[in-house]
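User: Is it possible to get a 3D structure for a protein together with its bound compound? The compound here is magnesium ion. I've pasted both below.
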Amino acid sequence: MTPEPANGSDPGVPRHLAVIMDGNGRWAERRRRPRMIGHRAGARAVNTCIDFCLERGIEALTLFAFSSENWGRPEEEVGALMKLFMNALEREVEEMHRRGVRVRFIGERERFSDAIAQRMAHAESVTARNTRLHLNIAASYGGRWDIAEAARSLARDVAAGRLSPDAIDEHAVHARTCLADLPPPDLFIRTGGDLRISNFLLWQLAYTELWFTEALWPELDAATLQSALDDYARRQRRFGLTGAQVAVPRTETSE
Ligand code: IPE
Ligand code: IPE
Ligand code: MG
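Assistant: Yes, that's possible. Here is the predicted structure of the complex:
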C-alpha cells in the first residue's frame, strides 16, 4: 500500500497532525508542584493546539492523552487524571461543537468508568456532523492494541466464513485500524524532549514526518507549532521513491 502524499490546496500544510503531549509532570516538578498541576496546565495547552489547527486549516488533529501503559501509574495520579478528563468533557464539548469540531475517542473504552464512557459517547454524538476539524483523542490507546484489535476483527470474519484469509492484505488491515477514514498523519509532534513513539499510532505513522521539541507540553505556544509546520514544509516526502520522482515540476512552482 502506497501512502498518499498530502494533496490539499497547500501541500506545505499537514492535513493531519498527530501529537504526543508529553512533559506535564516535569513542568510541575520544576516548579516544585504536584504532577497534577502540570496535567491541569496541559489541559489548557490542548486549546492552544486546537486553535492553531483551526486557524491553519488543518483537517485532523490526533492527540495522545493517555496510553494503555499509563494505567500503570500510581493510583492517585490515574484517579486525578480521570477527574480532569471528566471535567474537560463536561466543560469543553459545547464550545467544540460551536466551533465545528468533530470529537472522537480512540482506545480501549471498556477500561473507563461508565460515567466517563457515557460522556465520551455524548461528546461524539453531539459533534458527529461537524467537519471543520476532526479532533481524535487517543485515551487508553496503544498502537499495539489497535493492530491487535484489527487482527481480531479479521479473524472473527474468517472464522464466520465471511472473509477468505487470502483477502487479508494491507488495505484490509488498514480498514480495521483506528482512524481508517482519515488520511494518515502527515506530521507527528512530540513535546518533552524524548525521542520515541511510546506506542502511539504505530500503523498510521509509517510515513509520517517526525518532529520533536524540548518544550514541555504546558509551555506549548503557536510559535512552537509554527516552527514544526515550517520544518515540515521544507521536507521532501519520498514514500520510497527517488527525489526526482516526487519533485514538483517547475511549471507548477514558477509564479
Ligand atoms: C504527559 O505528561 C501526560 C500523560 C502521559 C497523561 P507526563 O505525565 O508523561 O509528563 P512527564 O513526562 O512525566 O514530564
Ligand atoms: C506518552 O507519554 C503518552 C502520552 C503522552 C499520553 P509517556 O510519558 O507515557 O511516555 P514514556 O513513558 O515517556 O515513553
Ligand atoms: Mg511523559
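Residues 22, 192 surround magnesium ion (ligand 3) (CB under 6 Å). The chain has one domain: 16-253.
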